[in-house]
Specification:
The structure holds two protein chains of two kinds. By secondary structure, chain A is an alpha/beta fold. Chain A has 15 helices and five strands. A four-stranded mixed beta sheet of chain A has the order 2-1-3-4, sandwiched between helices. The mean pLDDT of chain B is 86. The chains are: A alpha/beta, B alpha/beta. β5 of chain A pairs parallel with β4 of chain B.
Chain lengths: 402, 389
């Protein structure tokens, strides 16, 4: 075992002296994470905000009731701004500006407009009916559809009393105004038996800066770990392997030594990234113990996977290429560059075959829970490492031979 | 001609290593495919609905939510899964209907429907949509409740009657009028956006990483042996430049042809697209040459090449489209234009999104041409100096 440590120490010194390890392990991931978060942050931090305008030609009780609904919205929920305008054309102009993503902010714009026609209240109460127009800005993903729902909800509410009265009305009540009035009062007082209850979900999601930093960290992990792993093949190429074997060292300790190099490099790199991204651009990785467990498990899984790849290659160049391919494919599938959950379906299932996805999931779960939240991910990552390590073992034993 | 020989050797070396074929051709196509699959469609917020054993009324509520404008409804099997999906951001919100919803209501009892969302404002705003659907169904339920309380009929019969009456009541009708043209991206084909952004990203990235082969030929002493032959230095330099360029051209052509054949991508005016791509490839080759001449360690160059390739690509609008960058952060958008990618993207945006012709993109073309001239001269000079040291 002591030999393994000696080999690892020697390798580590070599790798650290070689600036490429520093580039792949610290500079590239940190730089890219910083760049990505700079690009994504303006988009991420834009909060939900929508503006609606109202044109009231009616000025009757129905219009009044609708205005009350909108005022309640503005007061009780964040992000809604309601304005009144005098004419239909002005409302339409503002919504048109709202649909143009490049319109400047100096003239007012809106995501939707509610048009309450003249005599609305009169027509509705007399049973003639009337329409409430919603001008919806094309391309408004959230604001306009919500405006439409609001209008539809209001319309349902308006119709509800009449439907209730007419449903409950015994045939003789039509003649009797007292009974009708009583029925109307009862109808207004009858509430919807269905109640919508709010449940607040915790956030098991990383913020953008942390996601980018973690993604880059685990992406480049596979490059930095490959330094240690391909070192095995390099020794064969430059001829030092036979010299190592001539010494009274067991071949096992050579393999373990290389593995140790990979793991130390990996843990070092990811730790520096975690600390660096937190200090430099506000990433929040979460509970340090949980993060530490995830990092160690991720490094073990990476080492195992890359050993399998190295075992399958015949030359060092081939091994490097295979390792780069695996690193890229797993990174894309694992969601390090963009969230895979958008695709859904089969590919989302496939992403669970990547250590990257489990690492990011573990961090996400840690955000919304305590240290124990990372345990499933840690176990999954360790499983990756163990299984691949076991597969690679016989090949490696053979590789470490004369 | 010797220049062609040297260039040809570069290309052959690249193609002979089969793993390069993955990086240079397969990976960009794969990425275009994945990006199209993930982001090419619409971005309606996703609401997960759990409606196990909820009967006819449960199905009715679910259908009303699904019919709402601007949301995508997915059926989830159980509450715990739905909650975790909301927490992880796989759903924007979840609606949980209690089991036996239908039976409970028909018995005249009250029922509670849960709305599960994270604490951010847009998730909360979705509540209004769900609330409207509940209110719509609620209108009928209130009528049936009133009628059965009055004693004239039972709940189910009253519900049916209420539905009939709803059809005849002329209350407030909601009329939707769409105003304005949707944002250009909404009209694009699924893979359209990914195609030109990834083309630029990968051609540049390949030029950067392929510079390692130039470094290797220097390390191995091949360049020095070429110099020992009666070959002028400028031939070698031109040959290497042509080699870089040839690789970029082959890669680009394959991506352009592949995407138009397999994904139906339209590249706009052919003259404009060709000019843009040609000038961009020349610039990329120049940068590759500079890297190949300046670095002596191919590992280092590889790492820096990947970093610069991805970084400049991201900044230049290959990951977040320039137009979106401009909306959210104009200073960033301005900074992006120090990269050749940004100008390439501007040109393609004009050609593909706005149907422009080569005349409309004279400015990006001029800048790309200038960039190419500067980089190629720099690369040629550095390479000459390094070779003849």
């Amino acid at each position: 075992m002591r030999t393994a440590f000696l080999i690892a120490r020697k390798d580590l010194r070599l790798r650290l002296r070689d600036r490429s390890a520093v580039i792949y392990g610290v500079i590239a991931p940190l730089g890219l994470a910083f760049l990505f978060s700079m690009i994504m942050n303006p988009i991420q931090s834009s909060k939900f905000e929508t503006t609606y305008v109202v044109v009231d030609y009616d000025k009757g009780p129905i219009a009044q009731a609708f205005s009350e609904v909108l005022d309640g919205l503005q007061e009780n929920e964040s992000g809604f701004t309601i304005r009144s305008v005098k004419t239909y054309n002005e409302a339409k102009a503002q919504v048109a500006r709202g649909s143009d993503a490049f319109a400047s902010d100096d003239k007012p714009k809106a995501d939707a407009a509610f048009v309450l026609p003249p005599l609305l209240s009169q027509h509705v109460t007399s049973g003639q009916g009337d329409s409430l127009q919603v001008l919806a800005a094309a391309g408004s993903d959230l604001g306009a559809p919500i405006a439409l729902s609001l209008a539809q909800g209001f319309a349902s509410e308006m119709g509800a009393v009449e439907i209730a009265v007419r449903t409950a009305m015994p045939p003789d009540a039509v003649q009797d105004p007292v009974k009708m009035a009583a029925l109307q009062r009862a109808a207004i007082q009858t509430k919807n038996p269905v109640v919508l209850k709010d449940v607040s979900a915790s956030t098991k999601q990383l913020n953008q800066s942390t996601y980018m930093a973690a993604g880059m960290a685990v992406f480049f992990l596979f490059f930095i770990v490959s330094f240690g792993v391909s070192g095995l093949l390099e020794e064969k190429r430059i001829g030092t392997m036979s010299r190592l074997l001539a010494a009274p060292i067991s071949p096992t300790s050579i393999v373990i030594g290389k593995a140790l190099t990979s793991m130390v490099l990996g843990i070092l790199s990811m730790t520096i990234l975690a600390i660096g991204s937190t200090l430099l651009f506000g990433a929040d990785w979460g509970n340090p113990i949980g993060v530490g467990m995830l990092i160690v498990a991720a490094v073990i899984s990476a080492t195992g996977i890359l050993f399998v790849v190295a075992a399958a290659a015949k030359t060092q160049d081939q091994a490097s290429s295979f390792q780069a391919i695996i690193a890229l494919v797993l990174a894309f599938l694992g969601g390090t560059f963009f969230s895979i959950s958008q695709i859904g379906g089969f590919i989302e299932q496939l992403s669970l075959l990547t250590p990257h996805a489990w690492f990011l999931r573990g961090l996400g779960d840690l955000q919304g829970g305590d240290v124990t939240a990372v345990i499933p991910s840690v176990l999954a990552l360790l499983a990756f490492g163990m299984v691949t390590g076991l597969i690679a073992w016989p090949f490696l034993r053979r590789a470490v031979q004369r | 001609m010797k220049i062609l020989e040297i260039a040809g050797t570069s290309v052959r070396r690249l193609l002979r290593d089969r793993t390069n074929i993955f990086f240079v051709f397969i990976l960009p196509m794969l990425l275009i495919l994945i990006l199209g699959a993930a982001f090419g469609g619409s971005y309606d917020p996703r609401i997960g609905v759990v409606w196990v054993n909820t009967g006819a009324l449960g199905e009715d509520l679910r259908d009303r939510i699904a019919a709402s404008d601007g949301v995508a409804v997915r059926t989830i099997d159980d509450r715990d899964t739905a909650v975790v999906m909301v927490e992880r951001g796989q759903l924007e919100a979840a609606v949980i209907l209690p089991e036996g919803y239908d039976a409970t209501l028909r018995d005249g009892e009250a029922a509670t429907v849960e709305f599960v969302a994270r604490n951010d404002a847009s998730a909360q705003a979705l509540r209004n949509t769900v609330d409207s659907a509940v209110t719509e169904q609620g209108g009928l339920l209130r009528a049936a409740t009133l009628a059965s309380a009055q004693g004239s009929t039972d709940f189910s019969a009253a519900l049916t009657k209420a539905e009939e009456i709803q059809g005849t009541v002329k209350g407030v009708r909601v009329e939707r009028v769409a105003v304005g043209e949707p944002f250009a991206f909404g009209q694009l084909g699924r893979f359209q956006l990914g195609a030109y952004t990834q083309l630029l990203l990968f051609v540049f990235l390949t030029s950067m990483t392929a510079s390692t082969s130039l470094i290797q030929s220097r390390q191995l002493g091949v360049s020095r042996r070429m110099l020992a032959t009666p070959t002028p230095v400028r031939t070698i330099v031109f040959g290497e430049a042509l080699g870089r360029f040839a690789v970029a051209m082959v890669q680009g052509l394959l991506i352009i042809v592949g995407t138009s054949v397999f994904f139906g991508v339209d590249w706009g005016d052919p003259w404009g697209a060709s000019a843009t791509f040609l000038l961009f490839a020349l610039g990329a080759s120049g940068v590759g040459m500079v890297m190949g001449a300046v670095f002596s360690n191919d590992q280092q160059a590889g790492g820096i090449g990947v970093m610069l390739g991805i970084g400049l690509g991201a900044l230049g609008g290959c990951m977040i489209p320039l137009a979106i960058m401009k909306i959210f952060s104009e200073p960033l958008w301005k900074v992006a234009h120090i990269t050749p990618h940004a100008w390439g993207n501007e040109a393609f945006e004009e050609l593909i999104l706005r149907g422009g012709t080569i005349a409309d993109i004279w400015l990006p073309l001029a800048i790309l041409a200038g960039f190419a001239v500067v980089m190629l001269s720099l690369g040629a000079w550095r390479l000459r100096v390094t070779l003849t040291r």
